[in-house]
Amino acid sequence: MDDQQGNHAPSLAGLRDDLRADCEKCFGLCCVALPFAASSDFAINKDAGTPCRNLQADFRCGVHQSLRQIGFRGCTVYDCFGAGQKLSQETYGGRDWRQAPELASQMYGVFPIMWQLHELLWYLTEALTFHAACSLHAKLDDVLRETKRFTELAPAELLRVDVPAHRAKVGELLREASELVRTEACRKQKGARIKARNVGRGADLIGAKLKGADLLGANLRGAYLIAADLRGANLRWADLIGADLRDTDLRGADLTDSLFLTQAQLNAAKGDAATKIPPSFTRPEHWA
Length: 288
Known about the structure:
Elements: H1 12-15, H2 30-33, H3 73-77, H4 83-91, H5 101-127, H6 137-151, H7 155-158, H8 163-188, H9 194-197, H10 263-268
Helix pairs in contact: 4-5, 5-6, 5-8, 6-8
């Protein structure tokens, strides 16, 4: 089969250099701005705008090496797509919420907006590498540039961005790109598993027994796959945008060409050395 993402497509790793979290350049924004509740993912409750008790004076996590063991699994799954360092180093020019407490509340409000914009940039850069969606590349490039312009705005202007409306516009383009790629992938497999392609957005597959399933080209957008058994499953060209992969068993599964996958999704799942993942991703340490 021809590469649906194009043999001559730009390197995703290179395109996403600025969309990977660099905690060394961030002022611990996710550890302060975001709330979390005591659960299987977090050992304690924390309100938005309150520094996590594990955050040190140098903005590093004091328990980073043992997060999963002491009940902070959620921290090992989270990914800001580079929004943290963008705000810290560019939007606020190196001023942190401790040095400039008068800006702290604004920073906490801007951070989720920048996070969402960077997530959209993550998906858009990938869509622009899809050869089968070349008819959409001009529109995708336009909306990518628009999204980048939003990320360059001053804090007060960022707070006025209509993020839901922009997400809806981007989401529709990504859906169209996905349809083109998945249809072409299934066509070149001589119609293999066309039924599987129509699983449907937001499908409830919690705990589903899908061991060895052929889900090539499946529409798993927003699907709930929590604790599902996908051992040895074929997820090539499956659309995984927004899919909940918490505790999904991906041991031996093939995600080589899956669409719109994120590192956070992999970090939330279970896998092993036999799990095939795209080369631009890092195999989670806990998979070992």
